[in-house]
Amino acid sequence: MTNRVCPLLKNPEQYTPDLQDLARNELARNYWLPTLERTVGNFVEKAQSLNPDNPKATEHAKQCLQKFHNLIEKIKLEPRTLVPLSVRTLLEFNEENLRVHFKDAWQTQKDTESEQALSQFSHRISEIDSISDFHEKWVELAKGLLAGNVFDWGSAAVANILDSSSIFGLSHAMETIEARPWFIDDVDVFIQRLYSHNFNSAVIFVDNAGMDFILGILPFVRELLTRGTRVILSANSYPSLNDVTYKELNRYCRSAAKQCNILKNAINNGQLLTLENGQKGPCLDLKNLPSELCDLMAESDLIILEGMGRSIHTNLNTEFTVDSLRMAVLKNEWLAKSLGAHQFSLLIQAIDSIEKKQPPGSSQNGGTIVLKCKDFRQLQLDIPTSYDFHNVYTSIERLSNLDRAELSYPFFYRPMYPLLEDGHTLFRPETEFAKLLATDQWRISHVNRNYSVCKSYSSVWIVHKSVDDNTLMAAASYREGGRIPLLSYRHDNGTVLLRSSQPLVGNSGKRSRPDEKILDAVAVKDKKGFIFDTRSTGLAGHCKGKGGGTEPDMHYAQWQKIHKNLDKLVKCDGSVQDHFSKLIEACHDTSISTDKWLQRLENCHWLTHIQSVLSAACLVAQCLDKDESNVLVHGSSGLDATLLVTSVTQVVLNPDCRTVRGLQALIEREWLQAGHPFQLRNARFCYSNAKAKNQQPTFLLFLDCIHQLHYQFPYSFEFTTQMLILIFENSYFSNFGTFIGNNEQERQEMRLAETTTSFWSYLNRPDVITNFLNPMYEPNKAAIWPSIAPVSLVLWRELYLRWVIDPKHQRTAAQKADDLIQNDKNLRTKAIRMRKQLMDLQKELQTLTADSECEILHES
Fold first, then answer.
1. For a FRET experiment, which of 202, 429, 663, 765 has its CA 20 to 30 Å from that of 74?
2. How many CA atoms lie within 13 A of 472 on its CB side?
3. What does the domain layout of the chain look like in residue ranges?
4. Neighbours of 837 (CB within 10 A)
5. What is the CA radius of gyration of the chain?
6. Which secondary structure element, helix H or strand E, spans residue 289, and what is its range?
7. Which residues pair with 462 in a beta bridge?
8. Which positions fall inside the Myotubularin phosphatase domain (predicted)?
9. What CA–CA distance (Å, rounded) separates 294 from 298?
10. Residue 611 CA: distances (Å) to CA of 104, 533, 562, 795
11. DSSP 8-state class, residue 178
C-alpha cells in the first residue's frame, strides 16, 4: 500500500498530527503515562470474556501489559525512548503488541454492540424523518453523532459506565452531552452553510463500531446523501480498541442498507464509498494515507473527523483547504480541563429546582431560567433567543432528573491528581474495631456477607463472642428490616452503645429468645441497662398496633426503657423537610423586620429539632459515662433518629470523633455502613416542589449538631466548620461516589469502589485538608457536655446565610486569628530552639571552665 499526504491540508509542510509532544510537556507526560498504562491494564480483566475461543487470552493480555509497562518505565528515565512520544504513538505501540496474540481483541464486543444498534436503526431514522424543521433536524443529527461517540471503550470514564450497565443506550448518552453552546460549536455555521450550499463530496473518518457508527454516523451520512453529496467513509486498516475497521465498515453499511433504501441505492450507484485509512491505531496521521483515498479526497469539499483520537489527540488545530467538522466528545477530564472545556456535562446534581420565566406574548424571544441549588445558591440565566432558551431548559431538566445513579457524574469523574489512599477501603470494621477485637469479648461475623440477613446493614458485623451466627439469623426476623442490636461504640469505661430497629412485638406480644440472648450477652449483673426509644410512648404504642412496638419488660428484665420524642424524625413524613424549607425561605427573605425574622425562625422548628437531638444524645452519653450503663438505641426503622443519637453521642464522649480522621470514620460507621439511605433522603432539597415523605435532611441535622458543639467548644475540634459544609455539599451532589446509594449492598452492586473516587481520598490530600484544620485546636480527652438551652443554640450562619451575608469580614477575622496563632507557634518554637542553644552554650562554658581549671592545676 503506497501512502501519501492528505491533499486537503492547508500547510502540509508544517503539519504535525499530535496535539501534545509528551517528550517536551512534562505535565502531560506525567498524566498520560500512568493513565494509558491503567487503560492497557483494564483489558487484562476483559480479555478472556472478549476472546472466549482463546484459552490463553488473559495470559497474552498480561504479556502485552508487561511490554507496555516496560516501555513506560524506560520513557520515565528517557522520554526520547519513543520518537515521537505522544498519545498516538503509545496507543499504536500497544495495538501492535495486541495484534501479535489477538486477530481483533474487541471483535466480540463490537459485533454484539453493532447487532444491538442495527435493531434500533429503523427507529432512529424514523425519529429523524419526523423532524420537519431543517435547523432542528441537523442539530439533532449532530447531537446523535456526538452521543454515539460516547460509546468508546478506550475511555476509562466511559468503560466504567458500559461495564456497569447493560442498558446504557443512545438516549442515555444524549443526556450526558452538555447543553449548547459546546466547547467548540460550529454546528450553526455548518447548518447555515447547508442552507445555501450542497457539498459535492464529503470524506468522513469514522471512530467506534456499534452505537457510534450505526446510530450516530449513518443517520448523518444518510441526510448528506439525500442532498446529493457523495460520501466517502474511511475506517482503520487494522483493529484498534472498539474502532470500526474497513472490513467491518462494508458489512455494517450493507446490514443497515437492508433497512434503508437511501443507503442501499447509494451503495449500489457508488454515491456511498468505503475505504481504509492506513492507520494502525485509534488516532489519525494525515501524512500517512493510502493513495486511493487521497485521490478521492482531492475532489472533496468537506472533511469530517470523528472521535477523540482523530480530532482531539490528533488534528485538533489542523487547517484544511475545504470546509471541515471535528465531531467528538471529550471523555477525559484532564484533557478537557487542559483545553478549558468540561467532561460530558455540568455537575447537574447540584440543581434542586429549575424555573423558567418568559415574558407574555414573546414566544420568539428568550427568557430567564432560575436554578435553585442544593448549596443554597440561586443562579439566574438570561437567554436572548427562544431556541437556546428552550434547549437549555430541556437539557438541564432532563439531566437533573436522571433515574439511574450510574448516569450521574461521579461515574464519569477521574481525578487529575495521584490518589494517596483509597478512601473506599479506609475505614473497614476490622481495622476500626481492632483493639476491641483483640479482647476475648467480641468477634467479627460474616453472617450477612450476601446481605441475606439484613439488606441495610453492612456485610461485616461486630458481635459478642457468646452469640453464634445461628442466633443472629434467628433474631433478625424479630427486628424490622433485620436490623438486630449491633455494637456502635464501646466507651473507655467498658460500657457499650448498641443500635437496632424496633422489635416486631405486635399486639400479640411476640417474643424472640435469640434477640433476648443478644442483649443478655452484654448485660451486666445487678446493673440495668437502658433501652433508649427515640419515639414517644404514644408513637411506640401506635407502631405496636401495626406489628412493631418496644421490648416487653418481662422478657428484658435487665433493661429499663426511656422514651424520647423524636417522632417527626422517626416517621420521616416530610414534616422535617418542610421545616427546613421554611428555615431557608426565612433566611433568604432580607426584607422582613427583626420581629418577623425571629418569629419565622421559631416557627420553622429547625433549632427545636437540633435541641431535641442534642438532648437525647447527652442523655445517652450520661447513661454510658456517668451511670456506667449499657444503652440500646432504636426508633422504628433505625435509619434516621437512631443514627443521629448514636453518632452525636460519640462526638460528645469520644475525642477521636472530634478529629478529621475520627469524624470520617464515624460517618462511615454510623451512616454509610449502618445503612442510612442517602440516595433516598437527599434526592430532593428545600426548593423542590416534588417532595416525598421519605425525604428529609437527617444527615444535615447531624452536621448542624456538630456545628453547635463546635460553637460551644471551638478548641476541641481538629477541623473547622468549613469542613462540615464541604461534607454536607458532597452528601447531596459530588464528584465522588462515597454518598451514592442507600446501603452497602447497593454500593457493591454498582461497584462504586472500582468505578468512582472516594470523597475521603480527595479530602485527605495534604493540599486539601490543610485548608480545613482548626488553628485553635487543643486535643481534649474529656467528654464535652453542651448547653442545650435555647439561648445557647445558634443559626449556622456560614451555611444557611452563605449567599445572603457577605462573609468577607468573618474570613478576615478568622485569617487574623489564624495568623496570630501561627505567629505564637513560631515564637514558641523559636523560644524552645533558643533555650536549647542557651543550654548547649552553658554546657560548653562549663566544659571550657573545667578544662581551664585543670590546666591551672597542672601548671601549678
1. 765
2. 26
3. 1-343, 348-403, 429-801, 809-859
4. 10
5. 33
6. strand 289-290
7. 444
8. 423-800
9. 6
10. 66, 17, 18, 12
11. P
Work out the angle between the directed axes of helices 513-522 and 469-476 (0-180°, nearest 10). 120
- From the candidate CATH numbers 3.50.50.60, 3.40.50.10880, 3.30.300.20, 1.10.260.40, the one assigned to the domain spanning 1-343: 3.40.50.10880
How many angstroms separate the CA atoms of 586 and 591, rounded?
Answer: 10
Task: Please answer whether residues 483 and 455 qualify as being in contact, where contact means their C-beta atoms are separated by less than 8 angstroms.
Answer: no
Which of 188, 96, 62, 181 has its CA nearest to residue 134?
188
3-state helix, strand, coil in the chain (%, to 5): 50, 10, 35
8 Å CB contact between 199 and 229 = yes
| Topology of the domain comprising 348-403 | PH-domain like (2.30.29)
Q: Which residue has the cell 468549613?
A: 722
Coil, strand or helix: which one is 233? strand
User: What's the farthest any 2 CA atoms get from each other in the chain?
Assistant: 125
What percent of the chain has pLDDT above 70? 90
Structural contact between residues 632 and 498, judged by C-beta atoms closer than 8 angstroms = yes
Share of the chain above pLDDT 90, in %: 56
For the beta carbon of residue 813, count every other beta carbon within 10 angstroms: 10
Alpha carbon of 340 to those of 66, 247, 269, 732, 802: distances in Å?
A: 34, 37, 45, 26, 28
Residues 6+ apart with CB under 8 A from 34: 72
C-alpha cell read off for 644: 443521629
> Which cell goes with 251?
458489512
pLDDT (mean) for 26-53: 88
Give the model's pLDDT for residue 374: 85
Name the region of 95 (left: φ>0; alpha: ψ -120 to 50; beta: rest): alpha
Total residue length of the chain? 860
CB atoms inside a 10 Å sphere around CB 188: 15
State the pTM of this model. Answer: 0.62
- Give the position of cell 465498515: 249
| Among the listed residues 661, 790, 796, the one whose alpha carbon sits nearest the alpha carbon of residue 717 | 661
pLDDT at 88: 92
Respond yes or no on whether the N-terminal peptide bond of residue 384 is cis (omega within 30° of 0).
Answer: no
